[in-house]
Design brief:
heterodimer; A: 224 residues; alpha+beta; B: three-stranded antiparallel beta sheet; 3 strands; 42% helix
C-alpha cells in the first residue's frame, strides 16, 4: 500500500503524514484536576460545569477551526487571510491558554498559604500576602467589561507584578509577564452564583487558590 | 446651571412583561442593580465637573479620550441601558413581531433585503463580539443607510473617540449579565428569542425622528 498513488500524485504515505500532523496539533480540553463540586461553596458546581464543558470547550474547538484555516491560508500563500485570522487565534487561543491555567490555579480549599520562595517574593514586592490579595482583588474587580486579573512574573526584573488583560488576551503574549495566578472576571465565571456582585466572587476565590501550583509556576519562571 | 441628578428611568413595562424571554428575576437584577449602580456611580463621578450640568445625551456627545473612566463607563452604562429598555416591549404569545411599514422598513429592505436579513446580520455581529459590549443600529443626517456597529464595554458611537459617525437608534445588550441567568452560555438562543421582544415601532420612530435628523435619541425625561 505504501507508495501507491491514490490521487493526483498524493500517496497514502502523504495522507498518513498529513492526518497524523493534524491530529497531533489539534487542541484538546485538559482534564479537570477535581470534580465540579470541589470548589464549593466558593465556586458552585453549576458554574464549574458550564465554564469547563461549554465555555472552555468552545474556545478549544474554535481554536482548532482557526488553526485549520490558518494552515489552508499558509498553504495557499494567502497573507491577507492569515492576517484576518489573527483576532480568532488571539481570542480562542487566549481563552484556551487562560482557562487551562485557571483550572490548575484553583483547587479544593486547603487553608494553605504561600511558603518559602514565593512567600519571600510576595513580601518583597507587595509587603505582605494580605497586600497582594488586596491589590490583585482591586485590579480584578476594576476590569471594565470582560477580562482577567493576573499575578505575573517579570523575567527582566525578577519581580512579581499585577496586570489586567481585556477579553481573552493572554498575559504572556500581551505583556511579557509569565502568568502565575489568574482571576477570571468574565461574568460567566461568577454570575449564576454571585450575580452582579463581582467583589464577593473575587473575595471568595482566594479560598480555593492552589498555592502549590502558583509556587511551581513561579519556580519554573525564575529558572527558565 | 445647577448640577444634574441622573435618575434610574422607570421601565416602560412591568418586570414580568418580558417573560418568558427574560425572567422577572433577571430583569429586576439588570435594571434594579446593574443600571441603578451605573446611575449612582455616574452621579458620584461627575460631582464638581463641568459636564455635571449636561443631560445624559449631551454628556455622551462630549466624551472623548481625556474623559475620566468613571464618567465614561457610567455615563455609557446609563445611556445604553436607558435606550435598551425602550427597544423592548411586552412579549406577545406566538413570537410574531414584524417591523411596521415605515421609512425604517424601506431602509432595511434596501440594505439587508429583508427583515430576516437584518436580524441575521445583527445576530452575526452579536456572536462575533468577543467580550462584553453592544450591537447598535446607527444612521445620521447624511447617511440614511443603516449600519450595524459592534462596540465593546459601555462605549457608544455618540462618544467622540469611538469609531462610527452614526446615531444609535437601536441597542442590544451583549454583556453576559444581559442573558446569563436565562440562557447561560447560549448567546445565540438569547438573540433569537430577543427579537420577539423588540419594539420595532420605537426603533422605526427613533430612526426617522432622531437618527436621520442627526440628533441623539432622547432617553431621559429631563
Amino acid at each position: 500500500m505504501l507508495g501507491k498513488i491514490l490521487w493526483q500524485g498524493v500517496t497514502s504515505r502523504h495522507l498518513t503524514a498529513i492526518w497524523s500532523i493534524s491530529s497531533r496539533s489539534k487542541h484538546k480540553l485538559p482534564d479537570l484536576p477535581y470534580d465540579f463540586n470541589a470548589l464549593e461553596p466558593y465556586i458552585s458546581a453549576e458554574i464549574m460545569k458550564i465554564h469547563y464543558e461549554k465555555h472552555h470547550a468552545t474556545y478549544v474547538s474554535n481554536l482548532n477551526v482557526a488553526e485549520e484555516k490558518l494552515g489552508e491560508a499558509k498553504a495557499k500563500g494567502d497573507i491577507s487571510a492569515v492576517i484576518a485570522l489573527a483576532p480568532a487565534l488571539r481570542f480562542n487561543g487566549g481563552g484556551h491558554i487562560n482557562h487551562s491555567i485557571f483550572w490548575q490555579n484553583l483547587g479544593p480549599k486547603s487553608g494553605e498559604e504561600p511558603t518559602d520562595d514565593l512567600k519571600s517574593a510576595i513580601e518583597l514586592d507587595f509587603g505582605s500576602i494580605e497586600n497582594l490579595k488586596i491589590q490583585l482583588s482591586t485590579a480584578s474587580i476594576a476590569v471594565q467589561g470582560s477580562g482577567w486579573g493576573w499575578l505575573g512574573y517579570n523575567r527582566q526584573s525578577g519581580r512579581l507584578q499585577i496586570a489586567v488583560c481585556p477579553n481573552q488576551d493572554p498575559l504572556e503574549a500581551t505583556t511579557g509577564l509569565v502568568p502565575l495566578f489568574g482571576i477570571d472576571v468574565w461574568e460567566h465565571a461568577y454570575y449564576l452564583q454571585y450575580k452582579n456582585v463581582r467583589p464577593d466572587y473575587v473575595k471568595a476565590i482566594w479560598n480555593v487558590a492552589n498555592w502549590s501550583d502558583i509556587a511551581s509556576r513561579f519556580a519554573k519562571a525564575k529558572s527558565g | 446651571m445647577p448640577d444634574m441628578e441622573y435618575e434610574l428611568p422607570a421601565l416602560p413595562y412591568a418586570y414580568d412583561a418580558l417573560e418568558p424571554v427574560l425572567k422577572q428575576s433577571s430583569l429586576k437584577i439588570h435594571h434594579g442593580d446593574h443600571h441603578r449602580i451605573y446611575v449612582e456611580k455616574l452621579n458620584a463621578a461627575v460631582k464638581g465637573l463641568s459636564v455635571a450640568t449636561k443631560s445624559i445625551e449631551d454628556m455622551l456627545a462630549c466624551i472623548d479620550a481625556s474623559t475620566p473612566k468613571a464618567v465614561r463607563n457610567n455615563a455609557g452604562g446609563h445611556y445604553n441601558h436607558s435606550l435598551f429598555w425602550l427597544c423592548m416591549k411586552p412579549h406577545k404569545a406566538g413570537n410574531v413581531n414584524p417591523i411596521p411599514e415605515s421609512r425604517f422598513l424601506s431602509s432595511v429592505h434596501n440594505s439587508f433585503r429583508s427583515e430576516e436579513g437584518l436580524k441575521c446580520k445583527i445576530k452575526d455581529a452579536a456572536l462575533s463580539l468577543c467580550g462584553s459590549g453592544w450591537i447598535y443600529l446607527t444612521a445620521n443626517a447624511k447617511r440614511a443607510e443603516i449600519c450595524i456597529e459592534s462596540i465593546y464595554n459601555q462605549d457608544s458611537p455618540i462618544m467622540q473617540d469611538v469609531p462610527g459617525d452614526g446615531v444609535p437608534f437601536f441597542a442590544l445588550d451583549i454583556w453576559e449579565h444581559a442573558y446569563y441567568l436565562d440562557y447561560t452560555f447560549k448567546r445565540a438562543e438569547y438573540i433569537d428569542r430577543w427579537f420577539g421582544l423588540t419594539d420595532w415601532g420605537f426603533v422605526s420612530d427613533a430612526y426617522e425622528n432622531w437618527a436621520l435628523k442627526g440628533s441623539v435619541v432622547r432617553v431621559s425625561r429631563l
